[in-house]
Design a protein that fits this description.
Largest sheet: 7 strands, mixed
Number of helices: 6
Distance between the termini: 14 Å
Number of strands: 7
Helix content: 25-40%
Strand content: 15-25%
Radius of gyration: 16 Å
């Protein structure tokens, strides 16, 4: 209420939706540090078929495993996007051919059937200028140094509705990059949560 940002996490029954539990604290800390947006201190966990889903302009989803939605959940996500919500789906496998990514893409094509479902987002998109300026999606240390498809992905994929992004799929594994105690941010050379601020500001404006 009143422009307050609440970090909402999507719960789905098929996979490990609750992975990277410290992401919320880090994102909220970044929003408080860099913007004047008031925040709700606790994470909200919600399902795609909840009647309350539309109250949250930003919805975080993550995991390694299978993504499966019921028809009611798919309909809920379609309504969410059509009403201006932004679903940010973070692939912890950082693998475009991995189980999470391929099953999420399949679900989105069921929910949003179109030839360009989850097309690459231009690196000149307004998302990269909504608060901080980026030349495209920032790289993550997990993607560069960890297992996965051994590719540094220089793009995000998305679904637009009426000229606005409603779904973003990231294969960069931002969740693992943001999953640390927020107090330790001062020990990092650069603040890797700045891109989360862009996501939040884009979703709320």
């Amino acid at each position: 209420s009143g422009g307050e940002f609440a970090f909402a996490r999507l719960r789905y029954d098929s996979g490990d939706w609750d992975y990277n539990p410290k992401v919320c604290a880090n994102v909220l800390d970044a929003v408080l540090q860099y913007t004047t947006i008031p925040v709700r201190e606790q994470e909200v966990v919600i399902t795609a078929d909840s009647t309350e889903l539309g109250a949250f302009p930003f919805l975080f989803m993550t995991g390694h495993k299978l993504v499966r939605f019921s028809e009611k959940e798919r309909q809920g996500l379609v309504r969410y996007v059509e009403n201006g919500g932004l679903l940010f789906s973070d692939d912890c496998n950082h693998d475009v051919n991995g189980l999470y990514s391929t099953s999420f893409v399949a679900e989105m094509r069921r929910a949003f059937p179109a030839p360009d479902t989850l097309a690459k987002i231009s690196n000149r998109h307004a998302l990269y200028r909504s608060f901080f300026r980026f030349d495209g999606p920032p790289q993550t240390s997990h993607e560069i140094n960890g297992w996965g498809d051994n590719v540094v992905h220089d793009y995000l994929r998305g679904i637009e509705h009426r000229g606005r992004l409603g779904v973003i799929l990231a294969n960069q594994d931002y969740g693992c990059e943001w999953d640390y105690a927020w107090q330790n941010k001062r020990f990092r050379r650069s603040d890797n949560t700045k891109f989360a601020v862009n996501l939040v500001v884009y979703a709320m404006t």
